[in-house]
Write a structure and sequence with these properties.
The complex is a heterodimer of chains A (282) and B (295). In chain A, 37% of the residues lie in helices and 21% in strands. By secondary structure, chain A is α/β, with parallel strands linked by helices. In chain A, strands 1, 2, 3, 4, 5, 6, 7, 8, 9 and 10 form a 10-stranded mixed sheet that branches. In chain A, helix 3 links the parallel strand 1 and strand 2. In chain B, strand 1 and strand 2 form a beta hairpin. By secondary structure, chain B is mainly alpha-helical. Chain B has one domain: MetI-like (MetI-like fold, Orthogonal Bundle), CATH 1.10.3720. Chain B is 74% helix and 1% strand. In chain B, helix 6 packs antiparallel against helix 9. A two-stranded antiparallel sheet of chain B has the order 1-2. Chain B is built from 12 helices and 2 strands, in the order ααββαααααααααα. At the A-B interface, helix 1, helix 2, strand 6 and helix 7 of A face helix 1, strand 1, helix 5, helix 9 and helix 11 of B.
């Protein structure tokens, strides 16, 4: 009994640790060699969860194949393809000029929208106003034409791709941001803004548009006069968006070609939507 | 002490098998803890060797993508939230145990205890969700931004009251009736009996409850992640957002790579060290208490 009482405080902690060790198991498989019936995909951590799901579905449709997905960032994905360590690279950014010789296929797009509470009268913010709000130079909605109320700045946790894209777009570094609330996933961000009339946040447009049309009290702001919607993200006109690209060394053949075709097909649109990305229409 | 065969009174084979079975099971349970510790150490080894432990206390902030790993604001966040909730939950829990055992009519006392037991069974994520959609907007309307140290303390208080109350109740019930009868015979009032006799006599149980509550509060993750705001800073008042060590792991682990990932395991390691320190303090305090109630 004494031993049990001693162990009890560790129970919740060990659950957490157990959870992490699961990550460990699935996170760091040794890099497998590219073989027949076996595809190695590395790169962007934004795209990895999506490709993992697409890979699983592909494996069940084509018994005998194995799709191995590893993360490490878009640059690693591109480097691995160039060095022949991976069959397909995942890149969630546009290619640099010196990477243009690679073959890229866009499978979906990712867009981020600024969200406010429905009761907030602000209908548009300029980029410099958003920068000023996120760096703490503007602290009251009155300064941008709203109510006299302090602004609650909602930011994403470090390492999230949404944060990276947001910072890149506004040319900010993580140290510049003066946040009041730091959140993990999109839903938490939407709940936070929906529960605070004076909050501003940014989340994936897919999620925000769905929630806003289902009675959650948030509204999306246009950026540079372009409305934030799934349609403008799909068309590529929304400024705060990026393509999710599969990279190969040359024009894909064989299994690689099959897989990329599959990832482009309407058969995986539900998986793309599940990850709050925007599928392209074909 | 089943470890020594000469202590087991029975010599039958069944008992022998049973005692061996128990030994193996306890060994498994104990080695689990060692394994967890070893695993955390192995995973944090990269950060320990490449970054060094001292930088976790001297860097200029937590910016893991820029290789800056100051962790002290999160230690303060964990300690403030946990101790704040103990300050609220300990008196509430102990007094409800006293109410339950001495003041409430038996039926009410029984149902009250059932209710608290139910409270202990509510998953933490439910507390967190309730905090996010009810408690935080309330605080935001009063003192923006809303997600704050206060929110964390209130949610943790709700979560650890059952632990403290139930353990306090069982140790109060174990105070020998002769103590209470003698004190009543001497003409002491009911409150005097409780305050002077029952509570000091059950001090061990009360302390155990408080430290178990503290350990649970420090290890809590999901609820605290949803109500605390997770901004890395030393709070200047109770309405400021904070980030705890556990929230830090849960927020960033899914997307962390290499050194960043290893640094998160340092968060876990430090949390574990903190819990071990508090459990040891509780053990030391137990043995110093002048009143020991026979179990």
């Amino acid at each position: 009994m004494a031993a049990l009482t001693f162990l009890r405080p560790f129970l919740s902690l060990s659950l957490l640790v157990g959870f992490i060790s699961l990550f460990e198991l699935f996170g760091v498989w040794p890099l497998a060699q590219a073989q027949e019936g076996n595809l190695v995909i590395t790169g962007s951590s934004t795209m990895a969860p999506l490709l993992l799901e697409i890979g699983k579905r592909f494996e069940t449709r084509h018994p005998g194949t194995r799709i191995d997905v590893q993360t490490g960032g878009s640059s690693r994905g591109i480097a691995d393809v160039v060095n022949g360590l991976a069959d397909i690279g995942m890149a969630s950014r546009t290619l640099n000029p010196q990477e243009k010789h690679l073959h890229g296929t866009v499978i979906a797009r990712d867009g981020i929208g600024m969200i406010l509470h429905t009761s907030n009268p602000i209908q548009e913010l300029t980029n410099s106003q958003i920068v000023a709000i996120y760096t703490g130079r503007i602290k009251n909605w009155q300064q941008v034409g709203g109510h006299n109320a302090p602004i609650t700045v909602v930011n994403k946790a470090q390492g999230r791709s949404t944060l990276k894209l947001f910072l890149q777009y506004l040319k900010l570094s993580t140290r510049d941001i003066q946040a009041h609330v730091v959140i993990g996933d999109n839903e938490q961000g939407i709940k936070t803004v929906a529960g605070n009339p004076n909050a501003i946040g940014y989340v994936s447009i897919g999620t925000a548009q769905y929630d806003a049309s289902h009675g959650i009290s948030i509204h999306l702001l246009p950026l540079q006069h372009i409305p934030a919607s799934v349609e403008t993200v799909r068309a590529g006109t929304f400024p705060l968006s990026r393509p999710l690209t599969l990279i190969t060394k040359s024009t894909p053949t064989g299994l690689t070609k099959n897989f990329i075709h599959f990832a482009q097909s309407p058969e995986v649109h539900d998986l793309i939507l599940q990850q709050y990305f925007v599928p392209l229409q074909h | 002490m089943i470890l020594f065969s000469n202590n087991t009174s029975s010599r039958s084979n069944t008992d022998r098998y049973f005692s061996w079975g128990l030994r193996v099971l306890s060994l498994l349970a104990a080695s689990l803890l060692v394994l967890v510790l070893g695993f955390i150490l192995r995973e944090s080894w990269m950060a320990l060797t490449q970054v060094g432990l001292s930088r976790f206390f001297t860097d200029s902030g937590w910016f893991p993508t820029e290789h800056s790993y100051e962790i002290t604001p999160m230690i303060s966040g964990t300690l403030l939230a946990a101790w704040g909730s103990i300050l609220l939950a300990a008196p509430l829990g102990i007094l409800s145990a006293v109410f339950c055992h001495f003041y409430a009519p038996p039926i009410l006392g029984l149902w009250y205890r059932r209710m608290i037991e139910l409270l202990a069974g509510i998953p933490s994520v439910v507390f967190g969700f309730w905090g996010l959609v009810v408690l935080v907007p309330l605080i935001a309307a009063w003192q923006p931004p809303g997600p704050s140290l206060l929110g964390g303390i209130l949610i943790l208080t709700l979560m650890i009251i059952p632990t403290i109350m139930l353990i306090a109740h069982s140790s109060i019930s174990q105070v020998p009736t002769t103590y209470i009868n003698n004190a009543t015979a001497l003409g002491l009032s009911r409150w005097a009996v409780i305050w002077r006799i029952v509570l000091p006599a059950s001090r061990v149980g009360l302390l155990t409850g408080i430290f178990l509550g503290l350990a649970r509060a420090m290890g809590e993750t999901m609820a605290i992640l949803m109500v605390c705001g997770n901004v890395i800073q030393y709070p200047s008042h109770i309405f400021d957002p904070i980030r705890t060590l556990t929230a830090n792991i849960a927020l960033e682990m899914a997307y962390a790579l290499d050194q960043h990932r290893s640094a998160l395991f340092i968060s876990g390691l430090l949390l574990m060290v903190l819990v071990i320190i508090f459990v040891s303090i509780a053990e030391v305090l137990r043995h110093k208490t002048p009143y020991v109630v026979a179990k």
